[in-house]
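Fold this complex.
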Amino acid sequence: MDVNWAQVLFNSAITGSLYLLGAVGLTLTYGLSSFPNFAHAEFITLGAFLGYTIGTQLGLGLPIALVVTFFTAGLVGLLCYRGIFQPLAKRGATIIHLMVASIALSFILRYSMGAIWSWKPYYFASSWAAFDVGPLRVTGLWLWLIAIAVGLAIVMHLGLVKTRMGKAIRATSSNPDLALASGININKVILITWFVGAGLAAVAGIFRGADTQIWPLTGWDIILPIFAVTILGGIGNFYGAIASAFIIGLAENFGVVGLMALGLSTSYRLGISFVILIITLIVKPQGLAMFFRRA
Amino acid sequence: MDLLLYGLDLLVFIGIFGILAISLNLEFGFSGLANFGKVAFFLIGAYTYALLSQIGLPFYLCLISGALVAAIFGLLISLPALRLRADYLAIVVLAFGEILRLIVKSEAWLAGGDWGLSVSPAISITGVSPRVDLLVNIALVFSCLLICFVVAQLLSNSPYGRVIRAIREDEVAAEALGKNRARYKVQIFMLGSAMAGVAGGLYAQYLQAIVPMLFLPIITFTIWIMVLVGGPANNWGVLVGAALVEVFERGANIAKDYIALPIDPSNLQYILFGVLILLVLFYRPQGLFKEIPIKTRALEAVRHAREQIKGEGG
Amino acid sequence: MPEEELLKIEELSKHFGGVYAVSGVSLDVRKGGIWGLVGPNGSGKSTLFNTILGLYRPDGGCIYFNGRKINNLSSHQIYGLGIVNSFQVPRLFFQMSVMDNMLVAARGHQGDGLFNSLFLRGGWQSQERELIDRALEFIELVELGKMVFALAGELSGGQRKLLELARGLMAKPRLLLLDEPAAGVNPVVGKKIFQKLQTLSKNGTTFFVVEHRLEILFNFASWVYVMDRGKMVTQGQPEKIVDDPAFYQAYLGAE
Ligand SMILES: Nc1ncnc2c1ncn2[C@@H]1O[C@H](COP(=O)(O)OP(=O)(O)OP(=O)(O)O)[C@@H](O)[C@H]1O
Ligand SMILES: [Mg+2]
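Structure:
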């Protein structure tokens, strides 16, 4: 078997960027609101559909699609939190109740999207020229994705380190009580996180949709790696999420080479995330957070 | 008479999902375990039954093996997560269900891939009408349901039931009172998985064909609705919940042939399920029927004596 | 009198991030009697108890019970050895009745096992009858006789504390750690409880009590430890300790 290892490495960066965008909202809202939002997958799906409608159906192109999708999905995420999770938590819902509520929300969103856009898959009208850079085959779409992920990492890092709000988010996600005591407006922090998290998930959805297909399960199809990133990175830990997204990206792309060598179905690439998830829980349930104490 | 067959078929489904609801109730209702991958153990039971029946094992051995295999997987999958918070277990089992479906889909040589497996019925009597056939199935399914129900009732009304409820309420306090919470949780998880395995076997032999598409996460969610609507920690309640949800699903199926809706009814049905759950969580988290306190003979005797004294005093 | 050593703690430390909740604490508790632990708010008393109980892993030091090192045991094993605790903030099973809360604590209930609960129903049913009688005694002691079948969640704050105490007694402890058992309880009942503890302490149970109402505690305790900011600052008989400058320092320094 002839393997272009450089390409595998590049693909890992693509996958890692995608998972980072997809998971960052999940891990931060999980840390702040103390429950995993299973409906996060639906924000990804929503992004794919919105991106398709704006970019391809209305023909407005990728940049506009990215911006509009980010803000629309962000608003949806915010409304979900304000309308469902926050009031439920106020009523004293347990973590299990909140998780069930997120699954219920997930079904409402998924089947609503099924009703609006139907269950027939769509594909982006592909207009991305592929070109070769050395041994690599690259398309403009992937360069966009990587640029956005790197941009996100830089902006978030600067935001977390330099701004007051960023310091608040770091304080809050590692110790909500402490933040409360030091007079940080934790509520505002949580709202912003839900907005940005859902928006970024939707951006990830556009790329995922462009890579595969756009249908009501676009997001659910990658729920395993998204959760693996969250757990491996340490719940609520941004820097951990960056590291684990690229670790899982590498594991998946090299794993696929291995699966093909073994003659197994490549659909098992999802199984790689599952194995990483289980190993993390057995070895170190806090994940990589220990390396990134201060996030 | 078509309608009768339809009703009998509905009863079989209520019975099978009743078992699943009872088993989730043991896990979530009584012990506070968030099993978000119920469908995984249902799948294991179904595929074990199908594979073993193909090599000619009698149906009861197939059912029992399905329960055992499901229990063993329940043990293996829950061990890494049970000592952690409830959310870890939820994520792991949910993921496990997705992986299992992937496996039976991919491994055509073993599980038939997308085409699935065909299963012979548990009890086939040649030359009888479909009605009798259904009645035999109902008898089989409801005997299994009865066993599961009795076990659940006996367990929940015993000192053991007291311990698992205590673990649900405050596991740290329960552990400080000498209860090895990990052991209890593993036991309950295995028992619940075994019951789900039996339900899977019954399902496989009733449908006589199983495909991966039957085991989507929506099944897990449906069982959760049954338990939450019926009333967690109330075995009678969750049976009512199972019946209500099954009847609603059928009703929705019939209605879509007669009523013109602006939304495709199969989408609408799940949207309504989601809304229903949110309404329950907001306005009636205890479900239709409240938790029944533990009843043992000794407790009842004391309660009775106290009420009499109160009666005489007042 | 010959006093056997029951609990021995050497240089115990427990940190939370940068907070040294307990640092280098050593103490002995010998068999019998009521032992006091006092100190201002936040001095580490509850943390010390929770560490003894196995709820926190110590960051340093050793805990011995009956000569056996118990640092690395989990809390159900520590219960098995005979150490029981009643929490400062009651951790009751709120959706369960007062009686069921008591029965969970019972030691060696045969029906606690999966197999027995299903198949040996005769055995545990008769045992349960005896346990219920014992539970009723303690319930009457803490004056909850009218609430036997009420849910624990329906109790008032003071009643919750009392049930927490009764539940600890139900567990037949050899050493019972009581974290402010009389907080929020009316003083008359508080006093009555301490009298009962004194009687029980003559029958093989040892009590180690955190209490802010020094006037009650000092009437009953035979020895008192004083903590301040995570450290053990002094110890002694109650009548002597009231004259100890370190004792005043701990309380006045904190204010
Ligand atoms: N779980 C925890 N996480 C972080 N800090 C803690 C934790 N538990 C206790 N602390 C800190 O440890 C110190 C000791 O607390 P502790 O509750 O043991 O004091 P205490 O003597 O019981 O006080 P009180 O008399 O108010 O009950 C305090 O500064 C407290 O804030
Ligand atoms: Mg305290």
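Strands of chain A lie at 130-133, 136-139.
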